[in-house]
Amino acid sequence: MSASFDSRTAGFATGREVRREEENMTDSYETISTRLDGNVLYATFNAPPINLIGPEVVRDLVDLLEALSRSVNTRVVVFDSADPDFFFPHVDLTKVPEYTAEAARAGGPGDASLGMLFLKLSEMPVVTIAKLRGRARGAGSEFLLACDMRFASRENAVLGQPEVGIGTPPGAGAIQHLTRLLGRGRALEAVLTSADFGADLAELYGWINRAVPDAELDEFVAGLAARIGDFPRDALIAAKAAINGISLPTPVALRADAALFQQLVRGEAAQQRMAALFKRGFQTRGRTELDLGDALGDFEAVD
User: Which superfamily does 3-297 belong to?
Assistant: First the structure.
């Protein structure tokens, strides 16, 4: 029987066990469809009506990351969305306790936050690439920031951190990642304005790796993923771990951001602004969600 070396555990997995692990990653998830192409796994989010990050998405992501942590063959994962308008618009603000409880399954009650779940994504022994079409705001942007690389459609991608406009700072990694990637001034601009950023400006600021013409995005990302997927796995893991050691935020910082988000999202100011947004069609497919940056800018001043 053939055997494959697993550098993560310094042990051996039989060929049959390896095949079983790879098959587990292509099992059906409620909100994620997966396809394995050689050493590259393609994972597509599909959570109608608009791909909100709710308990179902978080549950499936926890399960997928667990399967990936056991894989010895998969070297690259490409994440995208089945919805052309929304990658992840933000979390489902009507289900914060529910999705937080699902996130806790990845690390225990003390780490019940999307920020700590996304840190696990950053630390996975695979290369993670986000292919962005549509809107990635709030925790959707924070999911992308936790990935190793981000490539976006020049014509059809929007990023934003709307939390401050709603009444709370970001709580799942944006403050940590954007400050490191953009620098202090631009991070403050992105977070404090709650504005929408197109792909070209996001590329200029460093929010994404590249803005690519939409017609070329699929081929570009597939080629990049296949190239990386053909390189030795041990070298990929070692290089990623070394860069992570320099660039990733600490768990302490992520826990503090999550605690502040959980506190303020329940506060009076946030509740009032969310109520006003829901009256305008928040969390439904319409102008408020499509142009959320503009909608937040139209609100009157709040003390």
Answer: 2-enoyl-CoA Hydratase; Chain A, domain 1 (3.90.226.10)
Instruction: Tell me the backbone φ, ψ of residue 101, rounded to 5 degrees.
Output: -65, -40
pLDDT the model gives residue 289: 95
User: Token digits for 268?
Assistant: 């009076």
Q: How far is CA 270 from CA 74, 93, 256, 258, in A?
A: 42, 11, 19, 15
Q: Which residues of 38-71 are buried (b: 16+ CB within 10 A; e: fewer)?
A: ebbbbbbbebeebbbbbbbbbbbbbbbbebbebb
Ranges of each domain in the chain: 3-297
For the chain, first and last CA: distance in Å?
A: 69
CA distance 70 to 52: 28
- Residues of the chain with confidence (pLDDT) below 70: 1-28, 108-109, 300-303
Phi then psi for 282, rounded to 5 degrees?
Answer: -55, 140
- Dist CA 272 CA 166 (whole Å): 9
Parallel, antiparallel, or unpaired for β 32-37 and 40-45?
antiparallel
What local confidence, expressed as pLDDT, does residue 23 receive? 55
